[in-house]
Amino acid sequence: MKITRSDIESMQNRFRATFINSISGYKSLNLVGTRSMSGISNLAPFNSIVHIGSNPPYLGMIARPQTEEHQTLKNIKETGYYTLNQVHEEILKQAHQSSAKYDANTSEFTEVGLTEQASEVSKSPYVKESLLKMTLKLVEIIPIPLNGTSLVIGEIQEIFIGDCMIEEDGYVHIEELGSIASLGLDGYLKANHLTRYPYATLKDSD
Hints:
Blueprint: H1 5-10, H2 13-23, E1 27-28, E2 30-35, E3 41-46, E4 50-54, E5 57-63, H3 72-79, E6 81-86, H4 92-97, H5 108-112, E7 116-117, E8 126-127, E9 132-144, E10 149-161, E11 180-183, E12 187-190
């Protein structure tokens, strides 16, 4: 099957959004926890978390244009902190439901049945049920004029990891935590560990 640029343009809007989101491949699924200046907790699913650097420990994520329904970016800008909470199968249904367009005075924690857990380094709440979670301090927001989104870069302040293997070189077996991958806008998958290869060098290509 060959699909041209004009084919993409002719697709129905929702079909095109789902299609393009799907072909970019599997992504990690995290719930981003924030708190507004008025004290309302907010929770939203993100599948755009990317590694920016290890020293300092930076992670990035793509945030959609700020609207009244999407409070995450507003809260991050105002408070300077947020949490990332990886999703596992037992909280998947609640995580998906948190994507609904609740208003700014409604806490998704309460609406979907997840539990707030306090962080010692910020007012942004964790998802207690998550098995891998961290607090990040906002470092930079880089606007993307092409479509009005933003690259949000944060520095990790603390991490909580459940019971899983961490190898001698730092490799974390998150599959043992049941971490879920997402595909497209509403597809979810389990990950299975296949293998690890040693660091590649030129001699390996001989």
